[in-house]
Design brief:
Layout lengths: L3 H19 L3 H14 L8 H13 L1 H11 L10 H15 L5 H15 L4 H15 L12
Helix pairs in contact: 1-2, 1-3, 1-5, 2-3, 3-5, 4-5, 5-6, 5-7, 6-7
């Protein structure tokens, strides 16, 4: 199922957003989301493991990931950043540093979600910081990875 990573990433972003804004635990937010998706007729079964991996990964490493964001963008406090932007960066940084997704795919996917959920400036902001993350960590961004 080719759209499973996309569905997992989109659902994870929504859950991370709710965890951030509503101060829910990751487990509460995951349970709520799974039920909401099922009630809407979207069986999350085929992609649910990817959602859980991303949400638990980001929330489990939040302090480390947030430190990366602050390092990458020292002129903008994390709490002043738009919630969508902050959580897209968290998701992208987790996927790249934990090698969940090849860097080019992770960056492109986060940029696409930024177009869908962010403001007009969000895609460029996300692209720039995730690219800088890869440069800073000597992570190669290869077009060969796009076929993975």
């Amino acid at each position: 199922m080719a759209d499973s990573p996309l569905k997992a990433r989109r659902a994870a972003l929504r859950i991370l957003y709710s965890v951030d804004l509503a101060d829910l635990s990751a487990d509460q937010a995951l349970e709520n989301a799974r039920q909401t998706l099922a009630d809407a007729g979207d069986d999350p079964g085929p992609y649910w493991d990817g959602v859980v991996q991303r949400v638990r990964g980001v929330t489990g490493k939040k302090a480390e990931i947030d430190a990366e964001i602050e390092r990458l963008n020292p002129s903008w406090r994390l709490d002043r950043m738009a919630c969508v932007d902050r959580n897209l960066l968290r998701l992208g940084i987790f996927e790249i540093l934990d090698e969940i997704t090849p860097p080019l795919i992770a960056i492109n996917a986060c940029v696409e979600l930024a177009k869908e959920f962010g403001t007009a400036s969000t895609p460029g902001f996300i692209n720039g910081l995730l690219d800088q993350l890869c440069q800073d960590h000597d992570i190669q961004i290869s077009a060969e990875d796009a076929s993975a």
